[in-house]
Amino acid sequence: MNESDELPLLRRKLARERKAREEAETLLEAKARELHERNRELRRSNEELERFAYAASHDLRAPLRTIAGFSDLLQRKEAASMSDSGREFLELIQEAVSQMDNLIEDLLQFSRANRVEVNFEPIDLAEVIDDASDRLRSLIEQQSATIEVGPLPQVSGHAGLLTRLFQNLISNGCKFARPGVPPVVRISAAPDGDQVCVRVEDNGIGIEPEYQEQIFQMFARLHNADDYPGTGIGLALCTRIVERHSGRIDVVSQPGEGATFRVWLPGPAGGGS
Amino acid sequence: MMGIVFTEFFDMVEHRHGLRMSEQLLDAVAPANEGAYTAVGNYDHQDMMRYVAELARDTGRSVDMILAEFGEYLFEVFVRRYPGLIESAGSAIEFLGSVEAFIHVEVVKLYPDAELPHFEYPVREQGRLVMVYRSSRWLAPFALGLIRGCIAHFGDALEVRMTDLSEQGTRARFEITPVA
Ligand code: HEM
Q1: Topology given in CATH for the domain delimited by A1-115
Q2: For residue B133, which atom of ligand 1 is closest to its CA?
Q3: What is the CATH code of the structural domain delimited by A121-266?
Q4: Of B7, B20, B33, which is closest to A9 when you measure between CB atoms?
Q5: What pTM, to 2 d.p., does this model score?
Q6: Interface pTM (ipTM) of the complex?
Q7: Comma-separated ranges of CATH 3.30.565.10 domains in chain A
Q8: pLDDT of B91-102, one tens digit each?
């Protein structure tokens, strides 16, 4: 085939390819639109789910308060005239009510962690840890725990959420103690690039390597509720809070030798999306 | 049928028979889109069968041979385009054994409109595999070519034999065994 034969063929091929490219671009645009639309739907249904979870937990509270109120009344006014097993049943009811109250509180906190605006304000970590420990005072006393706090820098974030984050981590450090060993929880921090890495270290039972990822999932519980009480939401809530701060959380642990939770948060100059 | 099958078919024709042959096929079939195929589009499967028939006539070979040759060619294209899919397997038998449950599952994520065949695996043994092909259309010779391309790519000492089971519908059996 000589060149003058080839040329018209190449022209036709070029025209086909141009047309194909245009068609591909049209398809791409249609896909982009579709993706955008799907994203919007997904966001909407997420928001609906979020509102539902909030409303459901919120509305469960009122009847629960009624149950709690009347079982308290029963305890105070009628317990004397009850049989032993009657009093035992009543105690079981009260325990279940308090478990459910914790669960609802955690669900509401989780929902709040999704909803509040994180404005990345400068936060004094030492104050946050102070507040968190204050809220845990009765647990700390009950477990004879010691909280040791090193020098802490400033970070950026949402004070309320960060307080809740460290409250959960410190509370885990106190709860998952080795039998007969009073818990010691150490909190320290060091800059890591433009982030701050905060370590919450305990001397408790530790976590088997195969569970070290799973524990951050919602309702993941490794232990029997009688041995170590909890709702299975605590660490999922921590993860959510850290994510809202464009940060990261992990755990380093050997079974029987305590656990160190590490949290990376934006440094004082930082601020995420 | 997915556009990638068309664009690669015309690439093969142009490589092996020259641009003039591509034009000849397009002139003979006169497709609605004038041959402007894009890999991510979806086109009439019958048009592909017409091109294959036309190419068979023009080159004096059978339709089945053309389909097999194209399958073999296409496998190398897949290797280039989707290295991640191919590298996940360590041998031809391992790869072929994963077409139904993994490869074509991934394909559907990329191309939700793809119409894929089904494979059953009545025999899975060390060094030996039997695949039974079932489809709404007859592209078993194309599968044969893909299997050959796969064996060649992994460089395994295997051979494949196809048995036509079309009296039971559009079905065929592929037996992949060590080279005798
Ligand atoms: C990375 C590897 C592979 C990829 C990316 C791939 C992808 C595809 C795509 C895009 C189609 C076109 C669907 C349509 O036209 O709508 C197809 C069809 C087909 N594939 Fe695969 N495939 C792969 C491997 C294989 C292998 C190894 C075999 C054979 C054992 C096979 C057998 C077939 C057959 C026979 C068809 C034609 C459809 C039919 O017969 O109904 N594929 N594949």
Answers
A1: Helix Hairpins (1.10.287)
A2: 35
A3: 3.30.565.10
A4: B20
A5: 0.66
A6: 0.76
A7: 121-266
A8: 999 999 999 999
